[in-house]
Amino acid sequence: MKKLYSNIDSKELKEVARELIQWVDRFAVFAFYGPMGSGKTTIISAINGLLNGNTDVVTSPTFSLVNVYEGQHRIYHFDCYRLEKPEEALNAGLIDMIEEGTICLIEWPELIESYLPEKRIDIYISVCENPTERNFEINIPDHD
């Protein structure tokens, strides 16, 4: 199933986050694709806020590779931007975290796609002509 959200501004972002969190009981892995500055960390912050009631701004774990958010739900937030080889994800323990079944929100997943489960939600974000708006394409696999 594919869901599209067009011309979403910061006020409407929670609507997209609500769409995503309804799937956390069926899918643990959410892969966020989009160019630098497209809002991957911003939507992850909104998801964490809705799931854990945490209103703190989430920062991207670019240098630490993973942030862990605790609350009603444990959430792993990965940023794979700095990885040069897929093996680095193995060495850092990211793949073990993914296999745990805990909610994993992954920025820049391209390099580790071969380690990701097929049953995951892929979110593609693009910047609109109006640079304060985003388009979201959410691909949800069949969930028997």
Summarize the structure.
This protein has 144 residues and is of the alpha/beta class.
Describe what you observe in this structure.
The protein contains four helices and seven strands. The chain has 144 residues and is an alpha/beta fold. It has a single domain, classed as Rossmann fold (3-Layer(aba) Sandwich). Strands 1-7-6-2-5-4-3 form a seven-stranded mixed beta sheet. Helix 1 crosses helix 2. The radius of gyration is 14 Å and the shape is globular. The chain starts with a strand and ends in a 5-residue tail after the last strand. 30% of the residues are buried. The model has no long low-confidence stretch (mean pLDDT 94).
Structural class: alpha/beta
CATH architecture: 3-Layer(aba) Sandwich
* CATH-derived topology: Rossmann fold
Overall pLDDT, averaged? 94
Q: Provide the CATH superfamily.
A: P-loop containing nucleotide triphosphate hydrolases
Q: What's the order of the H and E elements?
A: EHEHEEHHEEE
Shape: globular
- Kindly report the oligomeric state of this protein: single chain
Side-by-side strand order of the widest sheet: 1-7-6-2-5-4-3
Number of strands: 7
In total, the number of domains comes to: 1
CATH class: Alpha Beta
* Largest sheet, strands/sense/barrel: 7 strands, mixed
Residue runs with pLDDT of under 50 for 5 or more positions: none
- End-to-end CA span: 13 Å
Portion of residues within helices = 10-25%
Percentage of residues in strands: 25-35%
How many DSSP H or I helices? Answer: 4
Radius of gyration: 14 Å
